[in-house]
Amino acid sequence: MKKKIRSDFEKRQYMISEDFEIFYYSDIRFRNIQPHSHDYYEFYFPLSEQTDMEIMGKRYPLNWMCAVLVPPGIVHRAVSTGEDTYRRFVFWISSAYFDHLKKTQASAVSVLEECVRRKQYLFHFTENEIISLHAKILRLMDEKQENRYGCEAFEELCIRDLLMTMCRMIHEKNTPKGKSQQLKLLDITQYIDHHLEEDLSLDDLAGIFYVSKYYIAHRFRERLGISVHQYILKKRLEQCAASIARGSSITRTFTEYGFRDYASFYRAFRKEYGISPKEYQEASA
After folding, report:
1. Residue 181: is its pLDDT beyond 50?
2. CATH number at residue 213
3. Which of 23, 59, 70, 222 could bridge across to 7 with cysteines, CB 3.0–4.6 Å?
4. pTM surpassing 0.85?
């Protein structure tokens, strides 16, 4: 380990940088800290064996071939279980920078987002995989320290390389072999049906399922006869209609199922059902 990259331990639990911060810590007799949360994403790469991570009250034993992702708002703490030197990489990404990475290339973080939804925070890797990830972290730290020409652009390339590699490894472990090549339309439609409240673009879906957006568009047209946008709209309207029929607030309902404003919801609803949402609710009473 290069001595120059070692960081003095930061007790602060907030970011100074607007995009990311990265540290290599090596401490003797580390003092356990209190459970806490923060408003950024924390990636934790332990380099010693005698460490646990407590997340939302659940304790996870760690080793040097794993990594932890702690998203914003999740209560956690690292717990040292021995007296040996406690070494780790700690990588912080602000929520704004995470969103930037997502907007410019959804596949860079989409697998991580899906893991957060499933409350999967701990990831195990093979020896070769973790060595590869550690090498990418060191490259990023070197780039940040050297302050050479184009360093900001190279730093983002390093971050994308690190996150994309992690996403690929996690995706391949979470997905049965060959599923990406034999993707069924049902996989995508089920995902849409369960995430109607979110922004669902072709780019997002392509990143989540690791296929091209043109493949998805073609499959929808070929099998369902409608576009992805039309499918999402119909599903949102179906859920809104069912909720309104049960007496739910119209104002609350359309926002719950992904419509950004009432005007667009009203036009789509009237076009689909021939009457206004209010008239539909009264007729269902």
Report:
1. no
2. 1.10.10.60
3. 23
4. no
